[in-house]
Amino acid sequence: MSATSNPNSAFTFLSQGALIQEFKVAGYNIVQSFPEAKFYKTHNDAYLGETIGRTTNRIKGAELNNLNGRNYKLAVNDGDNPNSLHGGLQGWGKKDFEGPKAVNRNGKEGVQFRYVSGDGEENYPGSVECLVWYTAGIEGGKTVLEVEYQVELVGDECEETVVGVTNHSYFQVNPGAPTIEGTVVTLGTNEYLDLDAYQIPTGQISIFPAIPQAGESFILGATEPAIDDCFVMDSTAPISCPLDTRPLPLKTLATISHPNTGLHLEIQSTEPAFQFYTGDGLNIPETETEKGVKIPARGKRSGIAIEPSRYVDCAGREEWRGMCKIRKGQLWGARSVYRAWKE
């Protein structure tokens, strides 16, 4: 899918995980990817480009308590931590969606993907339908990708369930470089969710110590700062965040750029928080295609994940669950916009 007739500004999406395989700006692909779809099934423990669901990020103790009047045990898949991560062992990023279906949405060329997650999948209750829309264009000389999510409880198996969706692309605005060293970052907030020893929020919101105040730029080094935290755009979200944030105004979560390439990326969203991850745990081994073409390894700090979302563990924490609990007739929704350009 091209943003214009110019192939240097184009996108490629795959049915598996409705994932983003290419995000090309001035001829550069600024997302970490594999050249063939099959590698996303065999080499993608890092979730490159995937649509994350049925929930995002971590759920404390891999358990949902007091939902539909009962408790649900989920898969423990968070390394050494006893949590459930990114929807379980086979989250939505590992599933084959219907699509891409060509659509015109909000006056723009786009594609739609659809996935129905059945009752009991990864032990989540209720059958839900997820729709993903990608629309692309050129605005003011910038390549623009808009991503929209919608989830609805469509089954009659239960009264309520929990959902959350985001994209897990790893961005590299110095393509070809082994790491993100030298990337200039500006975040829209310096508030974050305090974490316990198992990377679960304590319930407190604090100032992140390793970066300057909101709106001030900092540079990523070879090893520092190492960040894997949930930054808060709206501290009132537990009581004010609607299930469908799409009508809300966009807020700028982050901008990143690199002086070696002149490439810039700005990410805006209607979501009240975002995970910012400097990729310190990335370890994708070298492989090759059937024709013997080498696919280089992607190691520590080879990309930056910026994941618009609700609060971490909102599905597990009852006082935050209003952000993600849906009933029949309700819609969960979110919208994000990615703008990229070369100076």
Helical run tally? 2
Strand line-up of the largest beta sheet: 9-10-11-12-28-22-21-16-19
Helix content: under 10%
Q: Helix-strand pattern, N to C? A: EEEHEEEEEEEEEEEEEEEEEHEEEEEEEE
Strand content: 35-45%
Radius of gyration: 19 Å
Mean pLDDT: 96
**Helix-strand category:** mainly beta
The biggest sheet amounts to: 9 strands, antiparallel
Number of strands: 28
Form type? globular
Low-confidence stretches: none
* End-to-end C-alpha gap: 23 Å
What does this structure look like?
This protein is mainly β. It has 2 helices and 28 strands. The strands form 9 sheets. Strands 9-10-11-12-28-22-21-16-19 form a 9-stranded antiparallel sheet, with no helix packed on it. A hairpin with a 5-residue loop joins strand 17 and strand 18 (201-207). The radius of gyration is 19 Å and the shape is globular. The two termini are 23 Å apart. The model has no long low-confidence stretch (mean pLDDT 96).
What labels describe this entry?
mainly beta; 9-stranded antiparallel beta sheet; 4-stranded antiparallel beta sheet; 2 helices; about 0% helix
Structure summarized in a few sentences:
This protein is 2% helix and 42% strand. With 343 residues, it is mainly β.
How does the SSE layout of this entry go?
Blueprint (H helix, E strand, L loop, with lengths): L10 E4 L4 E7 L2 E2 L9 H4 L8 E2 L5 E2 L3 E5 L2 E4 L10 E2 L12 E8 L2 E10 L10 E12 L2 E12 L6 E3 L3 E2 L2 E2 L12 E4 L3 E5 L5 E7 L10 E2 L8 E5 L4 H4 L10 E8 L4 E7 L3 E5 L9 E2 L5 E2 L8 E6 L15 E3 L3 E12 L1
Antiparallel strand pairs: 1-2, 2-3, 4-14, 5-8, 6-7, 9-10, 10-11, 11-12, 12-28, 13-27, 15-26, 16-19, 16-21, 17-18, 20-23, 21-22, 22-28, 23-26, 24-25
